[in-house]
Amino acid sequence: MQVLVCIDDTDNLSSPGTGKLASRIVEAIVEQGWGESHWGITRHQLLVHPDVPYTSHNSCMCFNAEIEDKYLRSLIDFASEFLQRESAEGSDPGLCVAIPDRINKLDSLIDFGYRAKETVLNKEEAYDLARKLGIHLSEHGGTGQGVIGALAGVGLRLSGNDGRFRGKHQIGAVNQAISVRDACAQTNIDLVRSLDGIVLMDDEVIHLGEKVKTVLMDGKSILLVYPFSEGTPDGVKWQTCTKQQLKRF
Predict the structure, then answer these.
(1) Which residue from 76, 149, 152, 210 has the fewest beta carbons nearer than 10 Å?
(2) 144 and 215 share a domain?
(3) 51 with 157, same domain?
(4) What is the pLDDT of residue 195?
(5) CB of 9 within 8 A of CB of 91?
């Protein structure tokens, strides 16, 4: 069965980030033989506001996993103990584990996720929705405020249209130029699209920037590009987006 796991508020400004802890949970799933997870971890930006306590950037990390039903409890127990042990001093970690196929009102969960990007929510709202939808939600230190972001992250991942994938792609290319076809063949990139929605053809050539990162759009791993202002000498028209351009995803 497919599960979604999201953690939030596990770090501080000097500790390993929440994404690192999420990746270690992914590793445990594989090492313990509970299942597999190779769809990537997504980072979801939540509201930054004086009334919202957070330790660094108020973003949560979510991933998909395919596990056997009998290992669900083991996964939850491991993740709970792991966050209790590994989360940084001063953090307020939260854990959410959801089974999409068993949620009959996905829209309400997705709506919660998007509201968490725009307004101040509270733990009671999060726990109430989790109970109604049959979702595991738990806190593992501090005030436990991270349950809000953990639940929101699952909703945002389910939307298929929010977040950046953790890490950067390592793509072999001559002079940083490569065709869309070859870039996708070397990675799990599903397609290449411009910022204004143009889907590039397989034979189009793109210039790779310093960090090649993808975003979650339409349920796919999308590499976003934008045009060179005047083109390049070798005729390449497109370049990958900068980190600054990707901050809004």
Answers:
(1) 210
(2) no
(3) yes
(4) 95
(5) yes
Phi, psi for residue 21 in degrees, rounded to 5: -65, -40
Which residue do the tokens 């953090």 mark?
91
Q: How far apart are CA 212 and CA 6, in angstroms?
A: 24
Alpha helices in 41-145 (DSSP H): 72-86, 106-115, 123-133
What is the reported pLDDT for 53? 55
- Based on the domain organization, do 36 and 152 belong to the same domain? yes
Q: What is the pLDDT of residue 235?
A: 75
Within a 10 A sphere around the Cβ of 2, how many other Cβ atoms?
14
30-36-39-42 Cα dihedral, nearest 10 degrees: -50
Per-10-residue mean pLDDT, the chain, length 249: 94 77 96 94 83 65 96 97 89 95 95 94 96 97 93 98 93 88 94 95 92 94 90 80 89
> What is the pTM assigned to this prediction?
0.91
The whole-number pLDDT of residue 49 equals 55
Q: What is the CA radius of gyration of the chain?
A: 19
Strand 205-207 with 238-240, pairing? parallel
With beta carbons less than 8 A apart as the criterion, state whether 149 and 174 touch.
no
Range of the domain at 180: 169-246
Please check whether residue 230 is in contact with residue 239, taking contact to mean a CB–CB distance below 8 angstroms.
no
Give the pLDDT of residue 55: 58
Whether residue 145 is found in the same domain as residue 214: no
**By CB neighbour count within 10 A (0-12 exposed, 13-18 middle, 19+ buried), where does 102 fall?**
exposed
| Integer Cα distance of 142 and 22 in angstroms | 19
Using the structure block, give the residue that is written with the tokens 């436990």: 144
Residue that the structure tokens 């980072």 belong to: 43
